[in-house]
């Protein structure tokens, strides 16, 4: 018998299975939609030292 491996859901941290889980890596469709909503409302940000189009601004100033 094979043990079922679980991973913490990225949204709620409850155990989520990878196999036969249409919402993976989330534990449920609800957690999947919560995460999608966070992306849509720009709650997740990736840090950068550059501002958008900063290379274009510096070229135009010369």
From TrEMBL:
Source organism of the structure: Moraxella caviae
Keywords: Metal-binding, Zinc
Cofactor binding comment, as recorded: Binds 1 zinc ion.
Top-level taxon of origin: Bacteria
Function of the molecule: Inhibits all the catalytic activities of DNA gyrase by preventing its interaction with DNA. Acts by binding directly to the C-terminal domain of GyrB, which probably disrupts DNA binding by the gyrase.
Full protein name: DNA gyrase inhibitor YacG
Pfam families cross-referenced by the UniProt entry: YacG
Cofactor: Zn(2+)
GO molecular function, one term: zinc ion binding
